[in-house]
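Shipment paperwork, digital attachment
Item: protein structure file
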Amino acid sequence: MKLKTIIVEDEAISRDVLRNYISKYCPNIELLGEASNIEEGYELIQKHELDLVFLDVEMPFGNAFDLLEKVENKTFEIVFVTAYDHYAIEALNNQATYYLLKPISIDELIKAVNLVTEIKEKENELENTILKPKTNTAVGKITIPQQDGFEVVNVKDIFFCKADDNYTEIYFENTKKLVSKTLKYFEDALKENSFARVHKSYLVNVNEIAKYKKGKGGSVVLSNGKEIMVSSSKKANLLSYFK
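Attachment content:
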């Protein structure tokens, strides 16, 4: 599929390099425009229905995060491009699909574009269809440690798990339990069942997903009405659970 794309980058040389790499190595990119600052970038985002934005972090009179705060309904994927690797964590927290360091590696650029393509193709494939998880209904039981021992619960009754520092909140249809285990512990314990890590703070039962929303950052709505944010870096993994 063609990815409708723009470049937002204040350095002319960097724009030239990225444009040339895209032209030579990324044939499915349809480049619709370029911007050298936040205001120009915002105008292009408002003008076009985009799939992908290559976005420099540091620009005159602000940065990439200032631009993203202005976008009310972000349905495009973001690939941050910058020389400063200390932005990596903040970038991922702000829903970056991929993170490229300057000077740009051609292999990393191709990898980023392939990932965005995979996400967009799967989103289009699943749109207006009945979601059918590839995995079977979660089966079996899991023990939840308590002060005086442990409780045994059915895995299928868990809707989602939420990180709380070194603890995890386990949510059922109408109740929740606080457990002195990390979210990573439950991610490993439930990896054979249909549980997907959709965000650094959330692990969800895929069979309880009732709706997937592209929207700003992306989210899933569970059968009990709870809406949970999906990190762009986790989208491909989540979408892979569905036929």
